[in-house]
Specification:
Pfam families: RT_RNaseH. The chain is α/β, with parallel strands linked by helices. The chain has 12 helices and 8 strands. Among the domains are: 1-27, no CATH class; 143-267, Nucleotidyltransferase, domain 5; 304-341, no CATH class. Strands 6-5-4-7-8 form a 5-stranded mixed sheet. A 3-stranded antiparallel sheet has the order 1-2-3, with no helix packed on it. The longest helix has 17 residues, at 119-135.
Length: 342
């Protein structure tokens, strides 16, 4: 119970409980408290939180200012979020670099796989892929890779069937070419065609990874490369290089008279330099430095003295006798010094 005396004395004081002798005075604050500015509330930002981010979990450890800053940041980049009224085509992708401030071994949360392998997650992923296919964001249409090689260069063209006016028409995606290197000029015709296939798959693997496609070439050797059983080292390296595409590709032979587009790319190729996106650098052979050369001219007298010195040494003489025998001679072996027997 608090008692406050406001009438009997000029000084204002209050007491606590029944103790009337202990008095507590009121202190006047010299600093005036005034409300000068109220932080504005962004109604659009609050609407974003309530409509599109209503299922998001914001950490409870954030202060009010931190939560407001986060809401403002999300509102500034609101185009990255899609609602149920927007199609999947309107989702904008963002790339960012993440630098970890921890060292190995990483905690379990960081080491989690990118996609959970549960049946429910796989089913949801398949449904999502089918939606993307229906919308045309990703296409599941036939792809063809045309290749050709000549003594001037290598050429390749990547084509895909496209639906134009409700009709499937094959159209080009990209063309690549380069001049051959001096070391490749020694290859035969079949080796050159196989080299062109390996080069085209390497330079356009991001188009072909994970899809089924046809390789069209005017060389029958390329057609049998995957199933070739006896081949030289160069053809074997080409065979190994394309093994990862074995289950996804079919190699088809096409006569050279109708193989025109790729024939022009290989006969008039782009220079093989860094300005060419399909550039392949020349592999420099390792250079072993020569530290010095020593030339000595010895006459026959020197070699005679060497032979004579061998006969004077007991161990060398016994070793020479052992080398001339057809079978093992234990008596000669025991005649050697102990260190030589080992």
């Amino acid at each position: 119970m608090y008692g406050i005396d406001l009438h009997k004395n000029k000084e204002r004081y209050f007491t606590i409980g029944d103790n009337k002798h202990q008095k507590f005075a009121f202190l006047a604050l010299k600093r005036k408290i005034t409300v000068s500015k109220v932080a504005p509330v962004n109604l659009d930002s609050e609407r974003l939180k309530s409509e599109k981010l209503n299922e998001a979990e914001i950490s409870l450890h954030l202060s009010d200012n931190q939560e407001n800053e986060l809401s403002s940041l999300l509102y500034d980049h609101r185009e990255a979020f899609a609602s149920d009224k927007e199609s999947l085509e309107e989702i904008i992708s963002h790339e960012f670099d993440m630098i970890l401030n921890i060292e190995r071994p990483y905690p379990p949360l960081v080491r989690r796989p990118a996609y959970p392998a549960s049946p429910k997650s796989r089913e949801a992923l398949e449904i999502h892929l089918e939606e993307l296919l229906d919308l045309g964001v990703i296409r599941k249409l036939p792809v063809s890779l045309y290749i050709d090689a000549s003594w001037d260069g290598l050429g390749a063209a990547l084509h895909q069937v496209q639906i134009i006016n409700d009709k499937p028409l094959e159209g080009p995606i990209c063309f690549i070419s380069r001049q051959i290197k001096p070391t490749e000029a020694r290859y035969g015709a079949s080796q050159m065609e196989c080299l062109c296939l390996v080069w085209a798959l390497e330079k356009r693997n991001y188009f072909l990874e994970g899809c089924f496609f046809e390789v069209i070439a005017n060389c029958t050797t390329v057609n049998s490369l995957l199933n070739m059983k006896t081949c030289n080292s160069h053809m074997l390296s080409c065979q190994i290089a394309i093994q990862e595409y074995r289950g996804n590709t079919t190699i088809v032979h096409k006569y050279g008279s109708i193989h025109k587009t790729e024939d022009g790319l290989s006969r008039w190729p782009l220079p093989n330099n860094i300005d060419n996106p399909s550039y392949v650098p020349e592999e420099a052979s390792p250079q072993i430095p020569i530290e010095g050369i020593s030339v000595t001219d010895l006459n026959t007298t020197f070699f005679e003295e060497v032979r004579h010195s061998y006969t004077q040494d007991k161990n060398c003489s016994i070793l020479c006798q052992l080398l001339t025998k057809d079978c093992k001679d234990n008596s000669l072996i025991h005649a050697l010094d102990e260190i030589r027997r080992k």
